[in-house]
Design brief:
Chains A, B: This is TetR/AcrR family transcriptional regulator. 2 copies of one chain form a homodimer. Chain A is mainly alpha-helical. In chain A, 63% of the residues lie in helices and 0% in strands. At the A-B interface, α5, α7, α8, α9 and α10 of A face α5, α7, α8, α9 and α10 of B. The first copy, chain A, binds a DNA duplex through α2 and α3.
Chain lengths: 233, 233
DNA sequence: CCGCTGGTTGACTGGCGAATCACCCGCCGG
DNA sequence: CCGGCGGGTGATTCGCCAGTCAACCAGCGG
């Protein structure tokens, strides 16, 4: 997160128009052809600027991607933080997080596409895993689950960290479905339905009320294995 | 999915020792440095063979990756299919699927790493999205959820396709946590715990029994939106 | 003993694309 | 009017790496 190596970066909004143009172009091109599948020339052409200018604003191709990630994620993480730190029961907050993610997708599907598809695919050696950004969000909300567990809202014995990961796993996979065209993103209802279904099934499970109640004691005896330790938390 | 372009391929096991050595090496190297981050020379060195030999067995780098995917996924999909087509209640099958995924990880973490991390996106234009393989598994198990819904085991109104996607989203994210070292994979208990927690929280949700029962009627009034259409199924 | 066949080798090349650099141009301050 | 400065240009350079190929070396059948 955000070591601005740019010297005269200063205030956030102060960055030149051009720089932002290039950034947008980069997002578009990455979304279309993937990071490795495009050359800087493509970005430049898309932005309508000269090849060299890209290097005026960004140290190299890598930093360009880095920046795309940082800006994209920081917005997302900020919003997630707001939800997490707000008031309300766990269920409400979970819905809030899902909402944030889907809203981001509604506003700028392409950016989300890049963020999701290009995760973890950092040019091998270079920099920290972009995964980090995602991990931030997960860690953030795992605090939420931790607190909820202490308040007794979350099933005891469930690792808050894992729960958090699962939530984002749900979100990511659902968005991926839209991103790759498995689900129809032009149907606004589909988005809405997916949203509530994600939150609901995460909170209450996928089984019918009857079935779930049956085992609701949370001791699914068939559940195998040596789960005894309550886990450090 | 298996168009064997190799001419004298014949029976599956009949492939030369060397070919398999190279494949294994490729998996190792891909896992370590990623597809784009490694050169063919690395694979050859890892396999202990000459550079050129790789090209004797594989048309090009792309086909190498392709093959890694196909072999990896086909095994996985086959096992998932077995579970799906077996007998038993939904809950049992879900546990079965989770089991399959984690077993694959236990047996060969590196292969799983490649399969997960390198999903989707190889040189943009080339071939069909590897996503396909994953999608296969999802589609397969969505039949399962469909049937379950008709038997009344699955919450009505939940899109079976989405449910399936969510399950794999859970699995993938959990495995990713291990793959990237977020969770400690050397602790065998951690694997076990994660396994049962995934299945359980997917089936019964994350809320405590009390809370869940409260809303168990499956009409979370706050759940917003215009969900009326039962959806085609 | 010869020559053929098919797996095996690794130096070599061709192209591609990231990054550089010499140069432009409009503006401002002196 | 001059000089210098910072945004802006794009042809050129340069290293890298996928993919080729000529030569090599069993083994084997004649």
């Amino acid at each position: 997160m955000g070591q601005q190596s740019k010297p005269a970066a200063e205030s956030g909004t102060r960055e030149s128009e051009r720089r932002r143009t290039i950034l947008r172009a980069a997002i578009d091109v990455f979304a279309r052809k993937g990071y490795h599948g495009c050359r800087i020339a493509d970005v430049a052409k898309e932005a309508g600027v000269a090849y060299g200018l890209v290097y005026h604003y960004f140290k190299n191709k890598d930093e360009l991607l880095e920046t795309v990630f940082d800006t994209g994620w920081s917005g997302f993480v900020t919003r997630v933080r707001a939800v997490v730190e707000g008031e309300g029961p766990l269920a409400e907050k979970v819905r809030g997080i899902v909402e944030v993610a889907f809203e981001a997708y509604r506003v700028d599907p392409r950016a989300v596409k890049v963020l999701i598809l290009e995760i973890a695919r950092s040019p091998a050696g270079s920099r920290i895993n972009r995964q980090t950004a995602f991990v931030d969000a997960i860690r953030l909300s795992s605090a939420l689950f931790n607190a909820a567990q202490e308040r007794g809202e979350l099933r005891p014995g469930l690792d808050p960290h894992l729960a958090s990961a699962l939530l984002f796993g749900n979100i990511e996979m659902a968005l991926t479905a839209f991103v790759v065209g498995l689900a129809d993103a032009r149907d606004p209802d589909a988005l809405e339905r997916a949203k509530s279904q994600i939150a609901d099934s995460f909170l209450y499970g996928v089984l019918t009320g009857a079935q779930a109640a049956e085992t609701s004691e949370w001791k699914p005896e068939k559940s195998a294995t040596k789960s005894k330790a309550p886990k450090r938390s």
